[in-house]
Specification:
About 10% of the residues lie in helices and about 35% in strands. It has about 70 residues and is mainly beta. The chain has a domain of about 45 residues.
Length: about 70
Amino acid sequence: MFIGWVGLEIVPNGISLSTDYMGRSTGEAYVQFVNKEVAEKALQKHKYKIGHRWGRLIMEGRDRVG
């Protein structure tokens, strides 16, 4: 776990990793947090560096997860 993400509680099975038509990772993930307050706290991590990469975070509705 990355220290900067500690305390951002996710619902059980609340991470969905996206794949393309060939089953390869697209690099996108949908995360469902336990409540709106935690989701808003997570948005503060927009462009947070993890090694040589960074995360882009946007708020989506539940209907976007597939």
